[in-house]
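Example 3.2
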Amino acid sequence: MSITVNPPYEVEGTGLIMTDEALQFIEELHERFAPTRDELLGRRSDAQAEAAQTGALDFDPATKEIRESDWTVAETPASSETAASRSPARPLRPRWRSMR
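Structure, written as tokens:
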């Protein structure tokens, strides 16, 4: 297998990022994980088809014990706080401009 970048995806600066080494890395990732990815996508497709047919969604029965057990999530360490989480709240503004 060989990966190449073809138009229309090739844009200015592509060669700086999509180097031969980067493409080789992507190829290795693909070869290593494609079978697992394809299997998981197949399972998802099957689950979607079943949900469409039955009109119901449910948790995987294999996770019942975990969901019903007594568990908690560890608190976030102070070192992982970001400057954004300590700054005053600012209203979110859309990054697009409405057409008038």
